[in-house]
Design a protein that fits this description.
The structure holds two protein chains of two kinds. Chain A is mainly α. Chain A has eight helices and three strands. A two-stranded antiparallel sheet of chain A has the order 2-3. In chain A, helix 3 packs parallel to helix 7. Chain A is globular. Chain B is an alpha+beta fold. In chain B, 40% of the residues lie in helices and 18% in strands. The chains are: A mainly alpha, B alpha+beta.
């Protein structure tokens, strides 16, 4: 019996290019930028991936690299669009799964852009690839103890934004639950 | 007079039983089938949710909401051609061509634009048609939320369903897998070939997925009767061929299960 110690490059790309792109797009909100970030991530892997000692960490390594490349790219830009800060009151109604189901990804991403920037990354990683809290902390370079609260508050803000949007222009059958 | 140094008193920490409110705090971000299941406080909170109807309903709503958001993020469309663009432009590890960064990025961006505008593919190989591509695709299916075509706890019932759908139903599973209860099944397609998917209950809080495809559909099928093991993402896989079919088993990387499976294969030396 043989046990493969790692993945070949083609398999690595096939397995992760999609989720990496989706993560990049949720951050950059531009197809061109997201493509570039994804390609650059694999380029960095090609040149530095051999430094990774534990092959089980390859996913975290790739997402960490992409996030780093995103931050570097943003630093070089003259201006990054400010995001609105919505403080969600715990008394506000949350939305039902049906409202989310009836929305499309574009709508959800537009709502995501309106929540606190520090909550966006943790929230996307939480949903995108079922990353653990420890992985999310590593990828984003944030304290482990803050990950859960950022996700929780991010979800609360996202629900608030989607509920407002649903009330203004119904995404589908507006359903709220208290 | 002697001074007695006061010793700091230790506060005896008594674990409080989880109540409904505490359970909601614990389960607020609960993701079934993830690493969350291994947390003791999560297990305790889930046990309470099974007994408390109101808490159970709340948990059901939370899980449904998380799954709804998860589906939206996972449905972000990925540009067609991006994978090929990466494979065509990124040097393979160990064969790095030291291009100047701006030139490389400009070339990569131009190529992405070309693919997007004209739909032309720069192909030097088609890895998606090889076994590695099949395996990666099936693992993604197992990792993501999917709807099984049939829910059944009987493997016979799953096999009958696959037979009715004209999918591979005459597969042979190792005894270790053949004796497990079923969860469900489905008929998938890969490169125009039917793939039978059988989901089994490992009875250890982890689902197992077995994918069966015609051996002739793969240019590089796994070796006959001697499994290859490989980690793929969060899962571990075993692949083998037997007679006219190739098999792929994907399951969470739980050592106790895989040790038992490897021993079973060693004993039989044939699926």
């Amino acid at each position: 019996m043989t046990v493969s110690s790692g993945l070949d490059f083609e398999t690595l790309v096939d397995l992760y290019y999609g989720p990496l792109y989706q993560f990049a797009f949720s951050l950059a909100r531009s197809e061109a930028d997201a493509c570039e970030l994804t390609q650059q991530t694999f380029y960095v892997w090609a040149t530095k991936g051999h430094q990774l000692r534990d092959p089980r960490k390859v996913k975290t390594w790739l997402f960490t690299t992409l996030h780093r490349e995103f931050l570097e790219k943003r630093r070089k830009q003259t201006r990054f669009p400010p995001t609105g800060l919505i403080e969600a009151s715990p008394e506000l109604p949350t939305i039902s799964p049906q409202v989310v189901n009836q929305a499309d990804s574009t709508t959800v991403l537009e709502c995501l852009a309106q929540i606190d920037e520090s909550f966006q990354g943790p929230l996307v990683l939480f949903y995108l690839e079922d990353h653990s809290y420890k992985e999310i902390a590593e990828i984003l370079g944030i304290p482990l103890g803050t990950v859960k609260s950022r996700i929780s508050r991010g979800i609360a803000q996202l629900q608030h934004v989607m509920a407002d949007r649903s009330a203004d222009s119904p995404i589908g059958d507006s359903q709220t639950r208290g | 007079m002697s001074w007695r140094i006061a010793q700091p008193t230790r506060r005896l920490e008594i674990a409080k039983p989880v109540d409904s409110q505490r359970a909601k705090e614990i389960l607020e971000l609960y993701r079934p089938g993830s690493a969350d299941d291994a947390e003791p406080d999560v297990q305790e909170a889930l046990a309470l949710a099974r007994q408390d109807p109101e808490l159970g309903r709340w948990l059901g709503d939370q899980v449904a909401l998380h799954r709804a958001f998860q589906a939206k993020f996972r449905a972000i469309p990925v540009p067609p051609g991006l994978e090929q663009s990466i494979l065509s432009t990124v040097p393979r590890p160990g064969k790095v061509i030291r291009w100047r960064q701006p030139v490389y990025l400009a070339a990569a961006a131009a190529l992405v634009l070309l693919v997007g505008l004209t739909g032309l593919w720069v192909l030097s190989s088609r890895p998606e048609e090889r076994f590695a591509g099949f395996r990666a695709r099936m693992v993604r299916t197992a990792l993501r939320q999917y709807s099984m075509d049939i829910d059944a706890d009987s493997q016979d019932r799953i096999r009958q369903f696959l037979r009715e759908k004209g999918a591979h139903a005459d597969y042979e599973l190792p005894p270790l897998l053949a004796k497990l209860p079923g969860e469900g099944g489905g008929v998938l397609s890969w490169q125009g070939n039917k793939v039978s998917m059988v989901c089994l209950d490992s009875q250890k809080k982890a689902d197992l997925y077995v994918f069966v495809i015609a051996r002739s559909a793969l240019p590089d099928p796994p070796p006959p009767d001697r499994p290859n093991f490989a980690p793929v993402g969060r899962l571990k896989t075993a692949s083998w061929s037997h007679q006219d079919k190739s098999y792929l088993l994907a399951a969470p990387d739980k050592p106790e299960f895989w040790q038992e499976l490897e021993q079973a294969f060693s004993r039989s030396q044939a699926p």
